[in-house]
Amino acid sequence: MTETIDHTPSTARQADPFPVKGMDAVVFAVGNAKQAAHYYSTAFGMKRVAYSGPENGSRETASYVLVSGGARFVFTSVVKPATEYGHFLAEHVAAHGDGVIDLAIEVPDARAAYEYATAHGATGLEEPHEVKDEYGTVVLAAIATYGRTRHTLVERAGYDGPYLPGYVPADPVVEPGPRRFQAIDHCVGNVELGRMDEWVGFYNSVMGFTNMKEFVGDDIATEYSALMSKVVADGSRKVKFPLNEPAAGKKKSQIDEYLEFYGGPGVQHIALATNDIVATVRAMRAAGVQFLDTPDSYYDALGEWVGETRVPLAELRELKILADRDEDGYLLQIFTKPVQDRPTVFFEMIERHGSMGFGKGNFKALFEAIEREQEKRGNL
């Protein structure tokens, strides 16, 4: 495996041509937003805070906004596809199943961000415009990225409403318990064979992102399949986008399977940062979330190279949590199975202790776990 790490001094990042404040929202197009909101409330412990639908003037779509700490998910489905956007949502769900349509990014100046991005080659989808209500004003713009995914650029410094104009405050779907995660750590995209470097270049040029890490070579492969991955991030490391493409192997890789069942490039998984992965996994398992299994043999030698972690080895083994260590510290992580019938979108729970890596020591164990699930589905 070749891994490159960006050691750009922090002073060099101060002149960021495309400053960001963080992830604003992950927006999903789904077949039934009401049921999705219930699932993520009960299984992921999120809290509904806002709603838009026919009851408050949105005649074609219904949207539910859920939060957990600084992480915000929006689930939107079509009531009737009467407008161009309604038709787009309906067609998106029909073609791709439930999936991410928007990785929205909060920026200090949406007009400047849009101007920079489009001047450097981005396809503009929505020019900067203001939307207002009694809570204030938001400036929005949007650009295209891989597949049918977009980045909405959100400037919300002048707004104190529950989400965006057009949304009204909403009570939780169920009474929320202890928070299970507090932020979006990174969002992973799968792209077609041969196009990873193209999209890395897109983020370098269009958004001024830098290359944070790179994973290529035999160590990011199993006996049957392989992939290549590069990570781009903004200068502050608040927004991190790993990008994967398939690589030649004996059988169908997880990226190939995703591209086939999703019908093209898209968001593969979302990593959620937690301060207590043990409590998170126990609560989510109890609520019915299914996680990938890890054989006991993985843990037999884990302590020899990972060393001591906050969670005892026996508990890691019991809960099937993975661990990895690098020069900066260690991390604990676990991956769900796909959360819809199509083997596409899944989630990662991650607890960091110094390490800003992505669990490279776990890649083989993770890929083998995914392959076991692919084999059950008849897709390996």
TrEMBL record:
Enzymatic class: oxidoreductase
Family: Belongs to the 4HPPD family.
CDD domains, A to Z: HPPD_C_like (cd07250), HPPD_N_like (cd08342)
Pfam families: Glyoxalase
Gene behind the chain: hppD
InterPro entries in alphabetical order: 4OHPhenylPyrv_dOase, 4OHPhenylPyrv_dOase_C, 4OHPhenylPyrv_dOase_N, Glyas_Bleomycin-R_OHBP_Dase, Glyas_Fos-R_dOase_dom, VOC_core
Keyword terms: Dioxygenase, Iron, Metal-binding, Oxidoreductase, Repeat
EC number(s) stated in the UniProt entry for this protein: 1.13.11.27
NCBIfam families: 4HPPD
UniProt name for this protein: 4-hydroxyphenylpyruvate dioxygenase
Domain of life: Bacteria
Organism in which the protein naturally occurs: Streptomyces pathocidini
PANTHER family the UniProt entry points to: 4-HYDROXYPHENYLPYRUVATE DIOXYGENASE (PTHR11959)
Annotated GO MF terms: 4-hydroxyphenylpyruvate dioxygenase activity
Residues annotated as domain VOC: 22-156, 183-337
Cofactor: Fe cation
